[in-house]
Amino acid sequence: MVIRAHILSYVARKQYNKVRSSIITIQKNYRAHFWRRIFLRIRTAAIIFQKHHRGQRARSLCQQLKEEKKRREERSGGDEKKKNRGEGWRRRGEERRGGERIQRRKKRERGNRKKS
């Protein structure tokens, strides 16, 4: 009878530990899921807040630069627009000074590469 009691208690203890381990695993996974969702919600809110703040700063800076440019143009009488109008529009391969010489040199270099 004593041996049977020990065996039954051993089996019951084993079953209890298995159920307890399963419950702990379920609780652990639920808590991880629960707190992960909260973390993701907070992170998303922070990212949205940062995005809006950066956009606001960029719009503010853009507005300041536009106002500054307008004040400069008003002070100079609009001469800057006339002065800068033709710059920046050049053919491919041309440089600011001596563009023809540079183009001729490039043609010669291309010809030398083909020969060798």
Give a quick summary of the entry.
The chain is an all-alpha fold. 84% of the residues lie in helices and 0% in strands.
Q: H/E order of the elements? A: HHH
Tally the beta strands: 0
Low-confidence runs: none
Q: Tell me the distance between the termini.
A: 104 Å
**Measured on Cα atoms, how large is the radius of gyration?**
39 Å
Number of helices: 3
Largest sheet: none
Features:
about 85% helix; P-loop_NTPase; mainly alpha; about 120 residues; 3 helices; about 0% strand; single chain; Actin_motor_Myosin; IQ_motif_EF-hand-BS
Describe this structure in words.
InterPro entries: Actin_motor_Myosin, IQ_motif_EF-hand-BS, P-loop_NTPase. One of its GO terms (biological process) is axon extension. The chain is an all-alpha fold and 116 residues long. It has 3 helices and no strands. The longest helix is centred in the middle third of the chain and has 75 residues.
Secondary structure layout:
Elements: H1 2-76, H2 79-84, H3 99-115
